[in-house]
Write a structure and sequence with these properties.
The protein has about 140 residues and is an alpha+beta fold. The protein has one domain. About 20% of the residues lie in helices and about 30% in strands. Strands 3, 4, 5, 6 and 7 form a 5-stranded antiparallel β-sheet that branches. Strands 2-1-8 form a 3-stranded antiparallel β-sheet, with no helix packed on it. About 20% of the residues are buried. The protein binds zinc ion (ZN) (2 copies). The site of one zinc ion has 9 residues, from loops.
Amino acid sequence: MLSGTWRVSCPECSYEHQSAGAITMVVRDDGTEAICPEPDTLRIAEETTGKRWGELEVAGRIRKRAAQVCLSCGALDFYPLAPSARPSQGYACRSCGHPRLFVLAEKTGLLGALFAGFLAPRCPICKEGRLQRSCVSPG
Ligand SMILES: [Zn+2]
Ligand SMILES: [Zn+2]
C-alpha cells in the first residue's frame, strides 16, 4: 500500500512534493543503513550485506521508511512507520525538529474522503489550504 508514487499538494499555493511512498533500507553488519531502491531492492540488499533476503528479513534488517512531510517547514523525508494508529507520532522532522509529520502514501476510504476537507492538516507554507494527497502511479 505504500508502494507507488505519491503526491502531496496545497490547493492555495504552490507547495507540492512528489515522491515514492516508501523506500526500503537494509542494515549493514556495522549497523548503518543503506537505501535499496526499486526495482532492484532485493538484489541490492543482498549485495550490500552478502546475505540472503530471507535471512535479512528474519533478522529484522529490512526496514521500510515512509515518505512524510513536516507540517511546520514542509520538508519531505523518509521516516519509520510506527505501529500505532498515529504513525507519525514519535518522530520529528530532520530539518526543523517539529514532531508532526504527514504520511504521503495513505489511501483515504470513502468516509475519509468525505471528511478529508476537515481533517487534512493545513499547508505548512501558506497555512491556508488543506493538504491533498493522491497516488500518481501505483507501484
Ligand atoms: Zn520541519
Ligand atoms: Zn499552501
